[in-house]
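Sat 14:20. Reprocessing the chain from the morning session after the first attempt stalled halfway. Input below, unchanged.
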Amino acid sequence: MKVYIKNKLWSIGNGSSVLNENKEPVFQVKGKALSPTKVKYVCDKDGNKLFKIRNKFINLFVHKAFIYDANKNKIATVKDKFINLQNEYFVLGYKDEIKIQGKFFGRTVQILRNDEVIGRITRQITVIRDAFELDAKEEDLPFLIALVIAIDNITDKKRKRQ
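Finished this time. Tokens:
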């Protein structure tokens, strides 16, 4: 199933829309206003929270974001490298081994779980806002949307040097 994740131009908390190929909302990404750690929630289309994403408050050399489940348990840490010329990101602490193969801000990236491709992210070229196409099995979509949001949060923080 393909979904399109687009950061909203004007929203309190920097939310995102998640639409299917028919441009119908399938998930919501809600941001928390005035959050120094860029807290965001991945919710189903009815507004039920599935995942919480937040950046590490202070990042000296390596940037990190954390993914929590609906029960507030940390299920994964997403981080970059000290010198990250290739825009590589790593997922630690998840129940399965997750790898991100390719440059996140290149054109296409593959997501592997235990060395099997479970998703493909294609960056959409826009001038004003970040937008991504995510192609994955329906059961993997919520976590992979949270992963895309976590990486996008890290890159936004690095750009703004917060």
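The helical segments are 141-160.
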